[in-house]
Write a structure and sequence with these properties.
Chain B: It is a multi-pass membrane protein. Chain B: One of its GO terms (cellular component) is plasma membrane. Chain B: GO terms for molecular function: 2 iron, 2 sulfur cluster binding; metal ion binding; monooxygenase activity; oxidoreductase activity, acting on paired donors, with incorporation or reduction of molecular oxygen. The structure holds three protein chains of three kinds. By secondary structure, chain A is mainly alpha-helical. Chain A contains 18 helices and eight strands. In chain A, a hairpin with a 2-residue loop joins strand 5 and strand 6. Chain B has eight helices and 14 strands. In chain B, helix 2 runs antiparallel to helix 3. In chain B, the strands form four sheets. In chain B, strands 4-5-6-7-12 form a five-stranded antiparallel sheet. Chain B has a four-stranded antiparallel sheet with strand order 8-9-10-11, with no helix packed on it. Among the domains of chain B are: 84 residues; 169 residues, Rieske Iron-sulfur Protein (3-layer Sandwich), CATH 2.102.10.10. Chain C is mainly α. In chain C, strands 1-2 form a two-stranded antiparallel ribbon. Classes of the chains: A mainly alpha, B alpha+beta, C mainly alpha. Chains in contact: A-B, A-C, B-C. The interface between A and B is large, with 132 and 103 residues. Strand 4 of chain A pairs antiparallel with strand 3 of chain B.
Chain lengths: 554, 368, 270
Amino acid sequence: MSHSDASGPADVPKAIAGPSSYLDDRLGAGNFLKRNLRKVFPDHWSFLLGEIALYSFIVLLLTGTFLTFFFKPSMEHVIYDGSYDGLKGVGMSAAYASALEISFDVRGGLLMRQMHHWAALLFVAGMMVHALRVFFTGAYRKPRELNWVIGVLMLTLALLEGLTGYSLPDDLLSGAGLRITEGVAISLPLVGTWITFFLFGGEYPGEDVISRFYSLHILLIPGILLALISAHMILMWVQKHTQMPGKGRTNNNVVGAPFYPAFMAKAGAYFMFTFGVIALLGTFGQINPIWLFGPYTPADISAGSQPDYYMGFLEGALRMMPAWEINIWGFTLPLSVLIPALVPMGIIMTGLALYPFVEQWVTGDRREHHVADRPRNNPHRTSIGVSAITFYGLLWILGANDEISWTFHISLNWTTYIGRVLIFVAPVVAYIVTYRLCLGLQRSDAAVIGHGVESGVIKRLPHGEYIEVHVPPSEDIEAHMRGKEAIPVIAGADTEPGGIPPKGLRGPIGKLKAKMSKAYGGEKIPLDDGHGHHAHGDGEHTAVGAGEDRSLTH
Amino acid sequence: MTDNNHDIEQPDDRVPKRVVGTPSPAASTTLLGAKETARTAEAPGVNLQDEKTAKKGEKIAALCFTITLLSGIAFIASYVAFQVGDVESTEISNLALGASLTLALLSLASGLVVWVRMIMPKYKLVQERHLMASDGETRSYVGETFLQGAAESGITKRPLLRRTLLAAAAPLGLAPLVLLRDLGPSYSDFPEKLRHTVWGEKTKDGKNRRLVVEGTGAPIRAADFNSPGGILSVVPEGYEHDLNALAKAVLILIKFRPEELKSGTNLNWTHDGIVAYSKICTHVGCPAALYEQSTHHILCPCHQSTFDAADGAKVVFGPAARPLPQLPITVDNEGYLVATGDFAVPVGPSFWERGDAEAEVREKGGHA
Amino acid sequence: MNRITAGRRHPLARYAVLLLALGLLGVAYTLVVPTDDRAAASIASGKVDNVAEGKRLFEQSCSSCHGLNAEGIPDRGPSLVGVGWAAVDFQVSSGRMPMTQPGAQAPRKKPADWVNDETIKQLGAYIQSLGGGPVPPTEEQVDPAKGNRAKGGELFRANCIQCHNFVGAGGALTQGKYAPELTEATPKQIYEAMATGPQAMPVFNDSVITPDQKRDMIAYIVGLQQEPNPGGAGLGRIGPVTEGLLLWVVGISLLVLAAIWITAKKRQAQ
């Protein structure tokens, strides 16, 4: 401990006090730090999921920079003369040759390539699980709608970033993806041929696309991503994180650990975990073995050519679509390409982006929300989410139907037939099942609040009946459950038939709105269900138990 | 996982401690304070760890950091020690570098977690939230200031200034778009390019272009390609390595027993049971190349469009809407297979300007 | 509250039960799905004329599907006239024939008990005597050491991978048929498959893909069989499907566990 000088606080070591007062003299950073050093971050494991994407992005920047030192984004034709025997003397593009060089002639090159690829997969996966967490807990609600939209934008960009990166090594597998991209782009009405010829600098595959994808992949898209990530973080910081319902947690406070030192250390640890898991996968899981694929030629293709998983849903949609093409007035509309390429992506991305606003429109809820919903407490939202996951997941699985057919000895054609039915049926079933599950879970919450929890202690009553003793839940659990609040319904939505609905709820759209609002909102299973709680025992149970309605618990 | 509290006794009125799907009650009992031995710090919501735990944590964290140190050294040593240059040595290098890096990172992560969990205090700090919206006074101040500034600048009062500024910005905004024009080729009759392949061109000495085997470049004597059920991937002579040409011109050549061919196939364009179809799928352009000689089906591995090769490659399954175009072939005077002309219709995926090329050919009395 | 009850109420208990149930289902599945029947009884071989002995073997083990004179029986087995000795060698040495159960396609399996070099030769001689056809290659024709691996790779990519996948890991065809993996195929079998076109596979006869070119391809395939995976576990070498699976099953799970560890509330010491 050194003694403080006149300008610094007591007991700050000189090595720190010196530089920090130098900086504060010039930046006035002290005021910012004063407000933010002890900024409180709520604790919940699911709040860390978004960080997977953040840290993966950092690993992507690090490993990607390394790769650019060796990669040659050129489609110039070369004869391979590197270390890999199986391709010696084979003609290929300079891009593919340099990717092989990174793999076999640069120490650590293969590890960096593999880590880059795994990190890319993890980046998208991290965004997905984070988005699901935000969706199911309603953390996108006011004031966070804008940050949600930024997130959806980033997810879209991440898919684009993945597509451009995947194509760069110019191997036979990625080339198949590029060919499909071309086939989809050229099918667009009116502008298809223009877009394709401009993208490829002429006819497919041309000699430009790798270098163009390269500048998109390493400069433009990551640049935009970086800007959006910064905005995403700043908004999160300014608006403060949502918290799960619990004891002492309200819509007007935030309860948790301070940024410095606890959250900082936790975040650092999680960065290292993410980095470590990427390194683990890069070491022990071979990914994208381009030397086995061979160089790209539009003449060849491998069985089981698949995109990376995050494009799997588009692949599945393309596979499942029946043949359908329309010719009108000498123009062609290839619907068996257009529909699967645009509709599922459109449904998912647009649906995600608009959900907060649609929900607001339906519930009429304009309040700020800082306490997260438990998924069961908004059953329609949760069911819509699960239904969407089912839709997406089915397409995703069907994107691998050839591998499924091959592995499990199911007829390839039947996987398609079954898929064509399931894509319509399964999301509906998922919706209904989830809705019932949510209500069931709400009922069990109500039972816990109303009657307490089973203690495992069996008591025999004087007249011979055996009962299990129920005890009140712990305070924290009860607070967690009581965090539930009714979903708002637009005022006037429950106007009696014949009554005059308020302005805005008239006309067909207004009526629909009122109907949706009534269905979506409200309290399905009130927690207390007409009981007081804790206050009264009824003799049938023991003194610590509570509640009369035995049908709920027995 | 989140609760490791099963062996801990609790007062009778507080069991069980946990309902699935709710947070561990640990924190709540911490607040009761009755049974904890932790020192309570001066600040509310900050519960210091007891010294015994902290000591133990320090030891574990230090062990983790030491492992990281050693693994980091191992990483550098591996870089120096293991060379690359073939598959086997790359395997060893990748394993050594990767394993040491993984261990270093995960160990560092674990050390940090131990530090947070065992040495740093338990926090339950509470901060106020405020409405995001600024108060009305601020809003009206900003609004007034904005209007005042706009008035001061003259932009509202002087339409000439405003309009010329807007007009000036328009071409500048368009300039980058103009610059993009040369991304595309100088010609703009793209659809025309898509309608033709190199099979339509004669060779330099004016002869029909020969079919050659992909990968070897050898021309194919019809008499040699004589095993029914045989296939070959075929490229045009002179364009064996031209990817732009191959993207439209690659063929799948199939040998049938003459009686197997059905009416969908244009027999005039075959030679002795040998049929040539475009290998580019009419769905989105993958090479449709899986051929089952027992069913005569051609399957595209990308989206599983299936074509009946014996019947003009008509679609029998999957998303492709049109048959694979057939190439007219015959033999030259040396007995080698040649193309007598181009495909009658554009090959590959559909595009807007394509139109129903098959119907047009049929109207002219031809065979698509 | 005794220990077992406590265990049953553990939040992980339901997952454990689920896992157990899934495991049992898997075991039941493997028991129910029929495995290869016991091979036909071995046949004593005497020193007799190859063709005659081959005919005897044929009548015992093959004629029920292919007909007494190998003329084929509709919907049971194709005619074997003209398929050649090479086809016999391929089908019988890889255990595909005799077939033990009907199906979309005969799978590779352990050859029948009576199968050995001698009996294959006899059976081959009989089939060869019916209408000629391709004969098995010589040792030299299939010696991978004599082939050019990279050249073979180009031919392999042009002609084989569309069905067999880029490393010969196999792939699905229509209606339950499939292209088998090449991981166990011997050089001789690879050659014979190309020359004869077994089942759904097309023929690559010697006049268009020369024996030398076939040997190059064999060199490439054998190279693939022997090559280690420098980047870690090969994940079946079927491309992004298993990679994605590993990411979600291992990557995301590990990180979720890490997140839970970091944020888990810990009870203060008693």
